[in-house]
Amino acid sequence: MDRPLKFPLHIPFVEELGFELWAFGGGQAEVRVDLAEAHLNSWEVAHGGVLMTLLDVAMAHAARSINAHAADFGPGVATVEMKTSFMRPAEGALRGLATLLHKTSTMAFTEGRVVDEAGRLCAHATATFKYLRALPTSGRHAKTLQPAAPPTETP
Fold it and tell me: What does the pLDDT read at residue 58?
C-alpha cells in the first residue's frame, strides 16, 4: 500500500497529532506518524506520551478490526489498562504495529510495538480494551465518518 487509509472514526486528538492509518483488518492495525517538533521532549526525541498514544490508537484499531467493514465498524472500545516499556529513543518516521491476541464478547487483549525507520524496536505495550456501544456519560456516541443512510419516508 502506498498511501494511508481513512480513519473510520473522527478522533480530533489523533488528527491533531498527525497520525495516519496504514493497515486495518483481521485483528491487525498499523498507525504511522512522522515526528514533528511538537511531538518531541526536551531531549529532542519522541515524547513518551506520543509513543503511548500511538500504541493505544493502533491497539484499539486492532481490537475493532475483526468486524471492520464499511457497514459495521463494530462496537467502540475503551482502554481498561495499558502497560508500556520503552526500549530506545524514537526518532523520525515511526510505525505503531498492533495485534489482537484474544477477544471475548466484552473484552479485547492486544499487543503493540513502535518501530523506527530502521525497524528498531522503540517501545512495546500490552493493553486490555472493553467493547462498548456508547460511553456511560451524557449519551455520547462515537461519530463515524461513513455517510449516513438516506432517511426513509413514513406514510
Answer: 98
pLDDT grade for 2, boundaries at 50, 70 and 90: confident
Burial group, residue 127, by CB count within 10 angstroms (0-12, 13-18, 19+): buried
pLDDT tens track for 63-96: 998 864 434 456 689 999 999 999 999 999 999 9
Domain enclosing residue 118, as ranges: 18-132
- 47 torsion bin: left (phi>0), alpha (psi -120 to 50), beta (else): beta
Q: Please tell me the distance from the alpha carbon of residue 149 to that of residue 153, in angstroms, as a whole number.
A: 12
Asked, for residue 92, whether it belongs to a domain, the answer is yes
Q: How many domains does the chain have?
A: 1
Residue for cell digits 498527525?
18
**Which CATH number is 73's domain given?**
3.10.129.10
- Strand, helix or coil for residue 12: helix
Distance CA 104, CA 14 (A): 27
